[in-house]
Amino acid sequence: MAHTPVNHPARPIYRAIGGLTGLYLVVFGVLGIITSAGTEVLAQDDTKVLGQGTNLGFSLLSVLLGLLVLAGTALGRNIDVAINQWLAYALMVISLAGLAFIRTDANFFNFSITTVIVVMSAALVLLMVGMYGKVGTEEESEAWKKARLVL
C-alpha cells in the first residue's frame, strides 16, 4: 500500500493516542455499566454517561472494544494497526446506524446525537492512528518513500 506510511516519525505519538482512545472507551463503558446496572441490556431510557446516551449493551460493547484497542496497542508489531483500522470501520458503521435509528424503536444502543458524534470521532482517531502506526524494515520504508515520489 503506497498510501500507508511505514516508520512514520510520529509513530509513538499516534500509538499513545490510540491507547488513550482505547482507555476512553473502557472508562466510558465501565461508567455506563455502573450507571445502567439493574436495567435491561438494550434499554431505551434516559441513561447518560459523560453526556452520552447509553445502555448496558453499548457499555459492555465499549469495554470490549476499548480492551481490544488497548491489547493491540500493548502488542504493537502492526497488530495494533490492523485492530485500529478494523475497529475504526466498525465504529463508523455503529455510529452511522445509531444516527439513522436515533428516534426510532431500532435505537438498540440508546444513542443520543452526542453519542453519535463521540463514537464517530473515536472511529476517525483510530483510523488515523492505524494509518500512521505501521512499522517496517528500512527497505520497506525506503520503498514507500520512492513510491510516494513516483505518484
Indicate the multimeric state.
single chain
Total DSSP helices: 5
Strand order across the largest sheet: 1-2
Shape: elongated
Number of strands: 2
- Report helical residue fraction: 55-70%
- Poorly predicted residue ranges: none
State mean pLDDT (0 to 100 scale). Answer: 90
Biggest beta sheet attributes: 2 strands, antiparallel
* Total separate domains: 1
The rounded Rg comes to: 18 Å
Structural class by helix and strand composition: mainly alpha
List SSEs in N-to-C order: HEEHHHH
Task: Note the beta-strand portion.
Answer: under 5%
How far is the first residue's CA from the last residue's CA? 12 Å
Write the layout of secondary structure elements.
Elements: H1 11-35, E1 48-49, E2 52-53, H2 56-75, H3 79-100, H4 113-132, H5 138-150
Antiparallel strand pairs: 1-2
Entry summary:
The chain is mostly helical. Helix content is 66%, strand content 3%.
3D architecture notes:
The chain has 151 residues and is an all-alpha fold. It has one domain (11-150). The protein is 66% helix and 3% strand. The chain has helices spanning 11-35, 56-75, 79-100, 113-132, 138-150; strands spanning 48-49, 52-53. A two-stranded antiparallel ribbon has the order 1-2. The longest helix is centred in the first third of the chain and has 25 residues, at 11-35. It is elongated.
